[in-house]
Amino acid sequence: MTPPTANTVPPGGVEPSTSPRPAGAQTDLSITVTPFPGAPPIMYRLVVDDGVPGAGSTVPDLAAAVAALERFGAGVFFPIPGPPKRCMDVYGGPQVAVVAGVFQGRPVEAVFKRTDSCETARWRALAPLFGAVAGGTGAT
Questions:
Q1: Tens-of-pLDDT digits for all 140 residues of the chain?
Q2: Order of strands, sheet of 52-53, starting from the edge strand that comes earlier in the sequence
Q3: Are 122 and 97 in contact, with CB atoms under 8 Å apart?
Q4: What is the pTM of this model?
Q5: How many CA atoms lie within 13 A of 65 on its CB side?
Q6: Phi and psi of 115, rounded to 5°?
Q7: Which of 1, 46, 78, 113 is surrounded by the fewest CB atoms within 10 Å?
């Protein structure tokens, strides 16, 4: 087993968000997932208006995606600064996802990878956004 390496990629152990959703908050996210280098990207969209999924959403499991965002979104997209996280140098797979747009009225542009334990925790927290490649081999 490889010893842990210091890594400042937040959040290491993804905690549920404690921030309340602002009233009238709009979410409109474009999700681009690349299952492995050289593979064609898979694209999804998630639209949520004040907690209610909207027309135009194309993520495969809309209810799970909305639930994951409600539970972890703010903590993943807007982590509270703190001490560096200790992450295990454990490779989880080649998948990469880029999430861009607006989350609860705030601009977002985030990259998700599975390059170490902290990044894999972030990936797993929002896996329903990434569709069939969420777990790296198909289902989560």
A1: 333 333 333 344 555 544 554 555 799 999 999 999 999 999 999 999 887 888 899 999 999 999 999 999 988 998 888 888 889 999 989 999 999 999 999 999 999 999 999 999 999 999 999 987 765 443 33
A2: 52-53, 42-49, 26-34, 93-103, 106-114
A3: no
A4: 0.78
A5: 27
A6: -85, -20
A7: 1
